[in-house]
Fold each of these.
Amino acid sequence: MDRGRGRRGGTALLLQKATNQLTRRTNERLVLRTIYERSPLSRADVSRLTGLTRTTVSGVVDDLIELGLTEEAGFGPSTGGKAPIMLRVPTDARHTVGVHVDDERISGAVVNLHGEIRQRASAPLRSRDGETAIAGLEALVDRLVGAAERPLLGIGVGAPGLIDTASGVVRWAVNLDWRELPLGERLARRTGLPIRVVNDSQAAAMAEWTFGHHEGASAMIVLKVGWGIGAGIILGGRLYQGDDSGAGEVGHIRVRDDGPSCRCGNRGCLETVAGVRGLLARATDLLASGVRSSLGEGELTLEAVAGAYREEDGLAAQVVMETAMALGRTLGTITGTLDIRDIVVIGPMSALGEGWLAAVRREARRSALPLLAERSTIRFGRLGPDVVELGAAALLMTSELGLVPAA
Amino acid sequence: MDRGRGRRGGTALLLQKATNQLTRRTNERLVLRTIYERSPLSRADVSRLTGLTRTTVSGVVDDLIELGLTEEAGFGPSTGGKAPIMLRVPTDARHTVGVHVDDERISGAVVNLHGEIRQRASAPLRSRDGETAIAGLEALVDRLVGAAERPLLGIGVGAPGLIDTASGVVRWAVNLDWRELPLGERLARRTGLPIRVVNDSQAAAMAEWTFGHHEGASAMIVLKVGWGIGAGIILGGRLYQGDDSGAGEVGHIRVRDDGPSCRCGNRGCLETVAGVRGLLARATDLLASGVRSSLGEGELTLEAVAGAYREEDGLAAQVVMETAMALGRTLGTITGTLDIRDIVVIGPMSALGEGWLAAVRREARRSALPLLAERSTIRFGRLGPDVVELGAAALLMTSELGLVPAA
C-alpha cells in the first residue's frame, strides 16, 4: 500500500510532510510567543489565546518543555476545578550575543530573553581600517561566545551605515570606511552560529520596541543622536528597513547649504550640524570668533558643553539651541511624512537633557502640520547605553524563536 | 440531536458558522483577486495559484459567475486532455464612483474594474464655505450615481487635507476650511452606498499603484504637486496612512524660515515655496523687482510660466529651478528616511516638464546618502489628470471586493 501511494502521490506526500512540519513550527512559535508575552499562562489560557486545540497546545508545550524553552511554575487560581499548572519562558532559557560597533569602541553583551545583560566585554576600535576593525570584532565575539553559560541563539551585530540585513553585508559604513563587507558570512563561518547584522539605529529601535514598553502603539521612531545620527522605524509592530535596508538614514539629510562637508561626499548633512561633531565644531568657531564663555578651547567635549549649558553659559546655550533646531526640524519632516506619534530620542546627545529636548520638540512642532505635530510625543528612550547590543540580540529572538514579529 | 447539540455547544456552533462564512468570504476574495490579476486562467490554474482544492475553487467560481464577477471566456491551450475553459473578471462587472475635490473644482467619474472611465461630471467649487461645497459635492454624486449603468461598489472621495479614512471624517482640509466634517457618514446616509473618503495624494498613490504598472516593486511614493503638495506612500503593496491617516502631509514641511505664511498657521511650508502658488508669487516678486522677462505681470499663470520656461526665458528658468530645488530636497529627505526607490511625481506642476524633473532629481540626489539616492528613480506618473478619481475608486475595489490589498 505504501508503494502504491508512493507511485501515485510521491510529491504530494512530500509536500504534505513539509506542510505538516511548517504547521508544527508555526504552532510552536505561536505558543512560545504567547507564553513569552503573557505569562504566567495555563495550557487552557494558551489554547484560548491562540485558537489552537487543547490537544495541540499540550503537544507543543511538551516539546517546548523538552527544549527548555518553557517551564511549569506553580499553580494558577482555580476556577472551580483543579488549580491549573502555569507556564512561563525561563528568563535564561537561551542567551544571545549582541554587539555594538561604534565609531570608537566595540561593545558586546550576553543577553537573556528578557533583555537582561549577563556578561559584558568591550574593546577600543584601534583603527578605522576595515581589517583591523574586523579582527577586533572577531576577538570580542570569541570572548563572549566562550563566556556564554547557556545555549546561544546566535550573534547580532549593530553597526553604523548602510547594511543589507538579509545578506549580512555592510554596504557602506561612512564613518568606518567599510564597503561591501560580508560581515555576516565571516562571523557565521567563524562561529557556526546564526548571525544578524543590522544598522545600529535600527537595532536601537528593535530594543526600545521589544524591551522598552511601548504601550499598545504599533509604530515608533527611534532617533539616535551621537557623532552620527540615524533613525530606526517600527511600522505595524515590525522593524521597517526599506527597499535596500537603508530606511532611517536621516543623518545624511541635507539641512544646510553652506554646512560642513561630510564624509559621505555631500555638504551640510544633518549629522555634521546637529550631532556631537556639529556641536563641538560650532562651539570652537564661536570661541575663536571671541564669544565669551566659561568653556576653554582645550576642553571642548560633549560633557563640558553639557555642563556649561546646565550652568547657563551663553555660548553653550546658543550651540545647544542651534543643534536642537536642526534636529527638531528634521523630526518635524519625519512626522509630516510618516505620521507616527511615538518618537524616542537616544544616544550621547541625550546628555544635554530636558532643555535640549524641549527645544527639539518646539522646533518639530513648528515644522509640520500642527494637527499632526500636536499629537506626537518626543521623549527620551527607556533603555541605557546598551540599547544597540540589546536590539541586535532581539533580532535573533525574532529570527530564531519568533518572539518578536519579524520585519 | 439538534437540541442536544444546541444545549451543549450553541455558541460553538454559531462560532463555527461564522468561521465557515469567513473562510468562504476569504476564499471568494482570494479566487476573485487571482483571476483579476492573472486572467485568463482555468479553474486548475486558480487551484494551483491559490492552494485551494479543485472542488473548493469550482464552488467559489460558480458563486462568482452567479454574482457576475467572473465569466467564462473561451478555451485555453490543451495540455494533452480536453482544452480548459478560461475565466476572467468582466471589465464592467461593477462600477465605482470616484470623486476628486480639488481647491477649485469637484470632478467625478464612473470607473470600471480596470480603471477605465465610463462617465464623467464636474462642477466648479463655488465657495470654500463648507456647506456650499458639500451641497455641490452631493449634487455631483447624485448625478453620477444616477448615470451609472452597472451595479455600483460604492463611492470613493479624494480630498485635500487630513482625513480619517476609517471614520470618513475630514479632520482638516487646510485649503477648503473643512474641519471635523463627517463627509463619509453624510454621503452614506444620502446614497445608501459604501463610502471611502481619503486624502487626495493617498488616492493618487492608490491609482498609480493599482492601474499604473509598478513592475514588481512593493513600495512607491507618489508626490502630487499643484497648489498644494502631498504624498501618498505605498509600503508592502498597501497604502500606508500612519497613526492618524496623516502620512504624506509633506506640503507642510518647513523648508524656509523666512518663507511665506501658510494657511496652516506656520511659515515657509513646502507648498508655499514649491507649489504653483510659490512659483507664481516668486515670479511676481522678481518682475516687481525689475527682472526682465517675456512674462507680463497680468498674465502670470502656471501655463504662461511653463511656456516662457520652454522658450528659455531667464526669469522663468530661475523660478522653475528654485521650486525644483525645494522639492528635490524634500524628496531627498523622504528617500533618506524611507529608502523607497520608486518615486512618482504627478499634478499640475508636471506641466513644467522634463527640465524641471531633472532639476528635482539632481537636488534629491544631493540631499540624501549617495548610495541610497543613486538607486531611486524619480519619474512622472503614468495616469492622466483623473488620477485621484481613479484612486478613490480603487479604494472601493479593495474594501468591497478585495481586488487590491487593503491598508
Amino acid sequence: MLFHSTDLNHYVVDVLRKAGLSAEDGKVVADNLVGANLRGVDSHGVTRLSIYVKRLQAGVVNPRPNVQVVEESDATLLIDGDDGMGQVVGKKAIDLGIEKAKQNGAVYIGVKRSTHFGTGAYFVQQGIEKDLITYAMSNAPSTMAPWGGIQPYIGTNPYAFGVPAGKHRPIIFDMATSVVARGKIITAAQEGKDIPEGWAIDKEGNPTTNAQAGLEGSVLPFGGPKGYSISLMIDILSGVLTGAGFGSHINNIYGDFDKPQNVGHFFQLIDISRLMPVEQFKQRMDQMIEEIKSSPKAAGVEEIFLPGEIEYNTEEKRKAEGIFLSKEVYEDLMQVGEQYGVDINPYTTTGSARER
Amino acid sequence: MLFHSTDLNHYVVDVLRKAGLSAEDGKVVADNLVGANLRGVDSHGVTRLSIYVKRLQAGVVNPRPNVQVVEESDATLLIDGDDGMGQVVGKKAIDLGIEKAKQNGAVYIGVKRSTHFGTGAYFVQQGIEKDLITYAMSNAPSTMAPWGGIQPYIGTNPYAFGVPAGKHRPIIFDMATSVVARGKIITAAQEGKDIPEGWAIDKEGNPTTNAQAGLEGSVLPFGGPKGYSISLMIDILSGVLTGAGFGSHINNIYGDFDKPQNVGHFFQLIDISRLMPVEQFKQRMDQMIEEIKSSPKAAGVEEIFLPGEIEYNTEEKRKAEGIFLSKEVYEDLMQVGEQYGVDINPYTTTGSARER
C-alpha cells in the first residue's frame, strides 16, 4: 500500500491523539516514525505504532508526561522523562539542550525514565539545523550477549551522530551497535524471511539464519569486541549514569506490559561556533566530502557515499513517490486505527478522497 | 631483553631530555609509552621512541611548546599545541579540561597543531582518577580508504573511553578504528611476520597477508561501514572542527620530515557527580561488572572479560615480572640513546648495575 508521507504522518497523529497524546506530541512521534520510513529505515518506521499504542493502553507509557530537569550544571542536564514516549521525552531534552548549548557552548544530557525513542537520526537532525554537532544514544532491552557470553545482557543500543555541511547535505550516521538493527530481524520474522548468518545466535549460542530463533537468542555486536565495547559505553552513559535501567534491568517493549521500560538516553550537543566560525567549518566539511566522493573507487563500486547520503537520497525519492508499506505492516497499522474508529483508507494514496 | 618498567621509564626520560624536552614533559611521554608496554600494547610502547626523536631532531616537533587555550566557552576549550609532542600537548589539554569539568560539570576539548599522542588510554586514566568519565580521540595520517574506495584518506583514528568503578577496576577501551591498530601491522613488518587476511588491502585494493604490502596499501575499518563512520566522526571532531589537518592533510610521522604533522585531538570529560552521587554510580558500575562476569559463557570461554580488564591483568604481571622487548625493538631503542651518549645497558634488568 502506498502512502504520501504527509498523509501517513496525519494518520499516526490522529491515532496517537485518540490514545491520549497532545496534537503537538503526536506530531513529534509521527515525524520520528515517518521520518524513518522516508529515510528507508522501515524497521523504525510506522511498524512501531501498534506496540506503542499497546503500551499506552496498558498504562505503562504516560501519554502526558511531565518531563523535567532534575539535575543541572553549566554543561550537563539530567532529565526525568516521567515514562513518556521516548520521542516526546527526547525532543524535550534536545530542545532544552539546544538552548543550553547555544548559551554555554555545549552540553551533555542524560535522560532517565523514558521509553523506546525510535530513530536517533531524528534528534540529530534537530541539532544540526541549529549548527550544533549532535549525538543521540539510547540503551535498550537486553538482546545482545556480553563478548564471550551467550545470554543477552545489553541492548543493540543505537549510536547516532551528525554534523552540518555547507553546500552538501549533512553527514549523519544512526547505527545499531549490533551487526544490524534488531528491528530488521523483527521485520524479517514478520515477513517470514531468513536472516544472513552472522547476525544472531540462537538461545544455545549456535549461529542461526532463522529470524525467530535469532530474536529468542542473542544478536551479535558489529565489529566483534569493539562494537560490543561501544554498546557497553552507551549503556553506561544512558543507563548507569542517569539512574535509568541498564543491562538486563530494562523492561521489554514487547513483553513487560505491567511496568514502564525505564529506558535511558544520552545526548550531546556542541556549538560549532565556539571552536570555529560556522562558515569555515562548513567549507572544511564540503572539502572533506568532495575529497571522499572523488576518491578512486573499489572494483564494482559506482559511487562512494558519505554516511547518511543514501538515506537523504531515499528521502527525496519517497517524498516524491510515496512510502510503500507491506501488506503485513499495513494491516497491523490499520488495526491500530480501527480500535479508535480511525479509518486508514482516506489516508492512503490509492484509497484517498482527501485533498492534498 | 627484560626491563623493569621504572628503569625503562627512566631511560626514555633521559633520552628525551637530551633531545630537548623538560624532565617533566619527558616523564609524561615516558609514562604514556611505558604505560602502553605495561598494558600489553607494545605497538604503542617504547618502539615509538626512535621516530619521536627523529622528528624532534628534524625540527618538526617542538620540544618546548607553548600550549595555550585559543578559544573558550563554559563547556568548550580549543587548544593550540604549538607542534609539541602529542603526549605533552594532550596532557596539558586534559589537565585544563579536568579543572574546567570540575568547575562547570563537563567539557569538550579540541586540540590542533599537535602530533602522535601515543596511547589514548593514558589520557583516559587521568580523567578516571578524578571521577570523570573520559574520552580521548585523535586523528592520524591517512592509512584507511573511504568505504567503497581503495586510496587511504582517513587514519586509523583511535577511540578511547573510560569510567571508574567501585571495588572493581575501571572499564577502559582504547581501540583503533581499523580492524587492528596500524602499529600492530608495523610491528609485524618489523618482525617479518605475516598478518591475517581482513586486516588490510594492498595498493591495488586486493586483500593481502603481507604486512609491508598492507602498510603501503590501506588498512580496513573495524565492522565495515560502521567502524568507518566512527573513524570519520573522530576526524571531523579532531580535525575539521579544531583547525588541525584532516583526511589526507595530516603529515606522515614516518615520511614528512620537513613539516609538522598538524594532528588534532578531541577529549571529553564529564563530572559524574553532576548527574549522580559518585558512590552510587560506582556501585551501579560494580553491579554491571558483576552481572557480566557471572553471565553464562560461550563454549570454550573460561572467563568473560570487561573492556580493559586483560590490560589491567597484563599490567600487574609486567609490573612484577618486567617488560620484555624483542631484539629488534631493543636494538632500535639502544641506538636512539647512543646518539646522545646514553648507554641503555645500566637500565636493563639483565645488565643492570643500578639500585632499585
